[in-house]
């Protein structure tokens, strides 16, 4: 007797007609035609069942603040930073918590059940840290939320930045962050990387740095981050986020850099939506788009995962909390249109991101947490094409969100009465 059985599911690895049996908060069995009674049965009808989506790079302290105190008229990164500097002194714990919880509601509806958020520690009041720690506790039953101590104005550059970051870590933030390219000089940026990696090593914490989010090919702090990762024995525990300068670097230098990153086991987190929106703003034409070298980094064996980064905040006026939207854009801007390319993109939204965040019990195998999403699509490629509707979202064996299948009624003589976009998937050899 199981609590739940999901029948006739397609899995991301290509298995079809699979049943998933759930007992309590764990997956008890996975296989074709499981013969057992269940308290509730869901027929996936040949649709994709995936582990939940994971966002390893987000800014929850700023989310849904679009228009406060004014709009980013130019849409640029620097105006966004200036806007945040105006908004930050007015922030209250209550408003921060309310916006973050609203975003988490949206995330759950999208099957997004794990998020790593950077938390600005540049204001010594640390109201952002207080608010996000409260949010982490309140959403724990349904979202794994990790918090990065992020010196938004620069670890060395901001007055009191060193003390504030250490105090935020003492309060219980999970990860050491940084932004070396925003320090006053390249030398200060390198010094901040070394200092922050030492803090992480001394405290036994991971590292996740905004690194080289610039079009400047000489912004090479990822090289320093990889070297300090090796120096302090942090292999596998360090993430480099954005890395957009790699888009502009010459190939010879990158041929040295990528093996160094692989040696350090750096986790790479591009943010396709915001990277292509903000980079290349000083170019006329040809115009750079700024996303890092995803294909080459994957080919070298690095763990590449994608972040949403922002939703309706001073830096990015778009966004929906939909990680499939992130992957859909990544396919286009990385020019990864092949069949296996798209499957790798889907992995970068799920299993790769779970590895970046160090999530335990993640996946769709026996013994894993009963966390999953039923999508209105046949397979990962179709899910990305359609940005598929989430029909069922389950957390620890409990359904926490549902949506009706998405159809359009047609009122055309001689044509079908309804259209389901998911039925337009291409035919496959040997399949009806």
Automatic annotation (TrEMBL):
What is the name listed in the Swiss-Prot or TrEMBL entry for this protein?
Cytosine deaminase
Name a single GO biological process.
cytosine catabolic process
This enzyme's EC code(s): 3.5.4.1
Q: Which PANTHER family match?
A: CYTOSINE DEAMINASE (PTHR32027:SF0)
Q: Which Pfam families match?
A: Amidohydro_3
The protein's UniProt keywords, in alphabetical order, are: Hydrolase, Metal-binding
Amidohydrolase domain location: 40-398
State the CDD domains in the record.
Bact_CD (cd01293)
Q: Name one GO molecular function term.
A: metal ion binding
Q: Which organism encodes this protein? A: Mycoplana azooxidifex
